[in-house]
Write a sequence for this structure.
């Protein structure tokens, strides 16, 4: 018996890795993105597809994380690698465009069942580049101003009111500049939308060099504003200082704000306001490389991730993000209390009116450089 | 096998490692700094100075100031270790001062971020003890935070070097000065310090180069403007995917460290003459 048994066990051990498929998911963003795949989506997918394992690799927070994924693709494309080492990637909106233009991605949305649920404009255009068919939005996130109602009983409802308020309350407004995370970048973009004219043109294009000349006054006033404000170390730094009472208002990511509140890292009485004319938010996109080794499995994975059930339970309920697919379908899967929690401070109407997108890529770069030139240096 | 050939063979692996992992990347980033859309040009440097001149000045001032403070602190600690009269205090200090050596820069940044904040641990303690009131507290999370982090982290390293050098000095000279009635401060400044000066210089130069390359501390404590060159380089790559200007900033930083490296080399040459 033993003579047969041992070789069988040995055979099973040596061949099982061949049968089991491993799906590699690269994800940019903070630790919560990796947690989302490791703790929720991965195990769910593995239980539905026995024998597969999902390996999540975090590439780091902010644009830097997506930049690393793009460079990884660049390297493999230049080396003419036949099968790339990533099957699914989660990238920031800004990087979806370049990846499509370079031909790295598979146009898979038509192939998956839930593809038609992505109805938002952000699944067709990404900062001025046509990405229709190549991306599925994982979730949308939004920036807003968080404030301490004990210190700010009536929060400013617009950028003009904010500028006046900040003058009256020196050093009470805090933001992280543009080098310490996207919430500060978003605040700056909102400032330009508010004080330098044509937000629609900045968000939809086309890019005209002449437009950049119109920003000087807005940056001059932003420089004044900044000397009167507190600069914080990073997205988390703003929330830290808010919770310690060192500032009473600052721009934050809405999902981070709710998660910190849920974890008890932020006092429960803190609130959010989305000032007019608006602040940008952005989706994170699921993309599948053209040269993925497990395309079918990857499509299955994204299909699961963008199903109304997973969007409701994972994206909205557990991680406090706004859904990536058609919101009405997600709402019907959730009880009213959970859904309303997302809109406690910012109503769906405010979100629709003041939730902007980031400027198209060339304007985005031009605004950041102008900030460095006129406000930073 | 002839001996010279064997020697060459033994050196080859080391030479290959140095060439592939150090010289080639260094050369490619230096040439990358002069690469403007595929052509040779100094556009990247113009942009680097236009956007980051204050960061460059800030970095050099911060690192120089930190080096001076590190020098003073390590002389004080080393001096006490050599001349201290209370053996118990000396041994406690000897045991304590090395601790920061084993703590990574990123952790130093993290610790100081919560310690130095306006309502952080330090100000809370000062308020508890009645030294400050809530209105008097200020945040140290700006250039001062970076200096504090650098000094805290690098002082033990320099102290380790000069305390060793001080311990190996001829005690007879110190004893005779003491017998003639010289104060301990005078012995430190006039007798010990001149003899350990070359070691101190080496320690400070190595610290200078280390501090120039630290990214985590400015990112954790003060990633605003002005900030350190390293934070600007990271931003240039992450926000714009622009390696040209980042490389140019790298070359500027390299030129700064070359100056101190040159001093170091001259010093070693003189010693070996």
């Amino acid at each position: 018996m033993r003579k047969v048994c041992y070789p069988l066990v040995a055979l099973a051990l040596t061949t099982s890795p061949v049968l089991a498929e491993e799906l590699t998911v690269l994800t940019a963003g903070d630790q919560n993105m990796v947690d989302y795949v490791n703790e929720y989506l991965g195990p769910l997918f593995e239980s539905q597809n026995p024998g597969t394992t999902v390996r999540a690799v975090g590439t780091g927070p902010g644009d830097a994380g997506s930049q690393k994924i793009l460079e990884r693709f660049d390297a493999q494309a230049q080396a003419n690698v036949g099968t790339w080492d990533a099957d699914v990637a989660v990238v920031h909106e800004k990087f979806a465009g370049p990846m499509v233009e370079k031909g790295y991605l598979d146009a898979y949305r038509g192939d998956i069942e839930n593809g038609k649920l992505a109805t938002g404009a952000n699944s067709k255009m990404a900062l001025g580049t046509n990405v229709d068919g190549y991306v599925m939005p994982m979730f949308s996130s939004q920036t807003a101003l968080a404030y301490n109602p004990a210190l700010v009983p009536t929060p400013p409802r617009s950028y003009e009111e904010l500028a006046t308020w900040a003058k009256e309350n020196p050093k009470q407004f805090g933001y992280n500049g543009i080098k310490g995370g996207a919430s500060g970048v978003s605040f700056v973009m909102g400032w330009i939308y508010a004080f330098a004219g044509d937000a629609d043109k900045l968000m939809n294009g086309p890019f005209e060099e002449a437009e950049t000349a119109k920003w000087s006054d807005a940056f001059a006033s932003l420089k004044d504003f900044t000397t009167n404000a507190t600069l914080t170390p990073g997205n988390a730094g703003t929330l830290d200082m808010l919770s310690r009472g060192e500032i009473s208002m600052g721009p934050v990511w809405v999902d981070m704000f709710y998660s910190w509140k849920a974890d008890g890292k932020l006092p429960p009485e803190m609130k959010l306001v989305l000032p007019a004319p608006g602040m940008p938010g952005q989706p994170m996109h699921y993309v599948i490389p053209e040269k993925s080794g497990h395309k079918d499995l990857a499509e299955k994975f994204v299909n699961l991730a963008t199903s109304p059930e997973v969007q409701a339970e994972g994206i909205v309920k557990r991680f406090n993000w706004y859904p990536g697919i058609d919101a009405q379908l997600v709402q019907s899967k959730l009880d009213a209390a959970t859904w309303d929690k997302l809109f406690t401070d910012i109503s769906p109407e405010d979100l629709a009116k003041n939730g902007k997108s980031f400027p198209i890529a060339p304007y985005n770069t031009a605004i950041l450089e102008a900030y460095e030139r006129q406000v930073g240096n | 096998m002839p001996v010279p050939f064997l020697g060459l063979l033994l050196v080859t692996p080391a030479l290959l490692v140095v060439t592939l992992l150090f010289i080639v990347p260094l050369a490619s980033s230096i040439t990358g700094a002069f690469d403007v859309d595929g052509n040779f040009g100094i556009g990247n440097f113009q942009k680097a100075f236009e956007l980051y001149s204050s960061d460059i000045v800030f970095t050099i001032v911060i690192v120089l100031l930190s080096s001076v403070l590190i020098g003073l602190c390590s002389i004080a600690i080393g001096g006490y270790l050599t001349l201290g009269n209370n053996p118990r205090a000396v041994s406690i200090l000897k045991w304590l001062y090395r601790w920061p050596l084993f703590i990574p820069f990123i952790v130093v940044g993290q610790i100081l971020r919560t310690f130095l904040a306006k309502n952080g641990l330090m100000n809370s303690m000062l308020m508890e003890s009645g030294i400050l009131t809530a209105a008097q507290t200020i945040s140290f999370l700006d250039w001062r935070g970076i200096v504090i982090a650098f000094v805290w982290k690098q002082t033990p390293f320099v102290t380790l070097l000069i305390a060793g050098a001080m311990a190996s000095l001829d005690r007879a000279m110190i004893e005779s000065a003491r017998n003639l009635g010289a104060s301990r401060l005078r012995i430190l400044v006039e007798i010990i310090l001149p003899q350990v000066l070359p070691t101190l210089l080496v320690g400070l130069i190595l610290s200078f180069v280390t501090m120039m390359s630290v990214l985590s501390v400015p990112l954790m404590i003060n990633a605003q403007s002005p900030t350190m060159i390293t934070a600007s380089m990271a931003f240039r790559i992450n926000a714009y995917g622009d390696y040209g200007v980042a490389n140019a900033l790298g070359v500027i930083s390299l030129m700064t460290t070359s100056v101190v490296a040159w001093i170091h080399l001259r010093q070693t040459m003189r010693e070996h003459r």
Summary: The domain at 141-281+347-376 of chain A is CATH 3.40.190.10 (D-Maltodextrin-Binding Protein; domain 2). Chain A has two domains: 2-140+282-342, 141-281+347-376.
